[in-house]
Specification:
Length: 207
């Protein structure tokens, strides 16, 4: 695969969607062909699973969530991500496998190794070249998510602060375990400063 694969990770309200768009715009300015996508979703099959996963009226265990995320990810990788990379395009993905490892594995109690195992066949070796962890405090992230979503909350954003604190700690653990893949970005800075830090990280690591 000749393209580059960048994922953006972090808790609720960290600014992943905003900075995925800003990063895609910056890469276009560098005359790099970019495909911007998200998880869960990105393909018709994965979007169908997304609707189920985010519906807080449908009870799901952490194990069921992990398998559904992996199923959506398998279609996403096979149908969109891998073909784009093979064409030399860059992928920017708003969340990827590390969210499953953290949300279901660490915060959800399944164990990081269990969730990694569930995702091995889904990924088939397709890991990001660079993962940008947008670091923000759980309380700040929750407040941002509430301001963003209003009454349109999903099954993850409505969970209590202790869950989101576990998520924040989980991302720190996975980032510390793979420093060669992760770049940690202070997402509590002004938006333009976050964008600059992201672009600098991409320039240093991949350009």
């Amino acid at each position: 695969m000749s393209g580059k694969f960048i994922s953006l990770e972090g808790g609720e309200g960290a600014g992943k969607s905003t900075h995925s768009r800003r990063l895609a715009s910056w890469l276009h300015e560098q005359e790099i062909a970019v495909v911007a996508t998200r998880e869960p979703g990105g393909t018709a099959g994965a979007d169908a699973i997304r609707a189920l996963l985010l519906d807080d009226d449908v009870p799901l265990s952490a194990m069921a969530e992990a398998h559904l995320f992996a199923a959506a990810r398998a279609d996403h990788v096979e149908s969109l991500i891998r073909p784009a990379l093979e064409k030399g395009q860059w992928i920017i993905c708003d969340r990827f496998v590390d969210s499953s490892i953290v949300y279901q594995g660490i915060a959800g109690g399944l164990g990081a190794s269990v969730v990694r195992g569930i995702n091995e066949t889904a990924l088939n070796g397709c890991w990001p070249d660079l993962t940008l962890l947008l670091r923000t405090g759980a309380q700040i992230g929750a407040e941002r998510a509430l301001a963003r979503d209003g009454d349109e909350n999903d099954r993850f954003s409505i969970r209590d602060l202790s869950f989101h604190e576990a998520v924040a700690g989980g991302f720190e653990l996975v980032a510390a375990a793979e420093p060669e893949r992760f770049a940690i970005i202070d997402a509590e800075q002004p938006v333009d400063a976050v964008t600059e830090a992201i672009c600098n990280a991409v320039r240093e690591r991949l350009l």
